[in-house]
């Protein structure tokens, strides 16, 4: 498996709408497995393909307890129902390291998706799983969690990230 590198905000590819997967071929299957490996390597609970520079509607996530592994692969995920009830969670993102902000989202969602074998599924997500899948589907639509914040906060974070990226480049 290949360890993929994660794009950091700001990056124009993180703002693009990803395209539907029409054929789950070997390239897509390998992408899914590499994304799972990359997510675990960086201790993330979710990863969307555009974060590794692939503009396809593929998401992997694992919000299980620390000592368990239960990775999920969702291809072309689509929210078909959201609860009225909301949940506030301090979100983070592998593309915006070291930043965490409280974001309000529906507490539960129903999601339609295709799995790696090409079968169509529907799943009901709650708790961290529900927050995570909404965050990841946002990535597929070119939206980041900081886009829910006010413009001042968002600009501040983006400036901080630009500085952070420059420091990384200078280091290597
Ligand atoms: Ni993210």
List keywords for this structure.
172 residues, alpha+beta, Peptide Deformylase, 5-stranded antiparallel beta sheet, two-stranded antiparallel ribbon, 7 strands, binds nickel (II) ion
Describe this protein's structure:
The protein is α+β, with helices and mostly antiparallel strands. It has one domain: Peptide deformylase (Peptide Deformylase, Alpha-Beta Complex), CATH 3.90.45. Helix content is 30%, strand content 28%. The chain contains 3 helices and 7 strands. The protein has a 5-stranded antiparallel beta sheet with strand order 1-2-3-6-7. A hairpin with a 5-residue loop joins β6 and β7. The radius of gyration is 16 Å and the shape is globular. The two termini are 24 Å apart. The protein binds nickel (II) ion. Nickel (II) ion binds next to α2.
CATH superfamily: Peptide deformylase
The largest sheet, given as strand count, sense and whether it forms a barrel, is: 5 strands, antiparallel
Instruction: Write down the overall mean pLDDT.
Output: 95
The main sheet orders its strands as 1-2-3-6-7
The succession of helices and strands, N to C, reads HEEEEEEEHH
Distance between the termini: 24 Å
* Helix percentage: 25-40%
Here the CATH topology equals Peptide Deformylase
Tally of helical runs: 3
- Taken as a percent bin, the fraction of beta residues is 25-35%
Structural class: alpha+beta
Q: Ranges with pLDDT <50 over ≥5 residues?
A: none
Query: What is the overall shape?
Result: globular
Evaluate the radius of gyration: 16 Å
Bound molecules: nickel (II) ion
> Mind telling me which CATH architecture this is?
Alpha-Beta Complex
Give the total of beta strands: 7
Total separate domains: 1
The first-level CATH class name: Alpha Beta
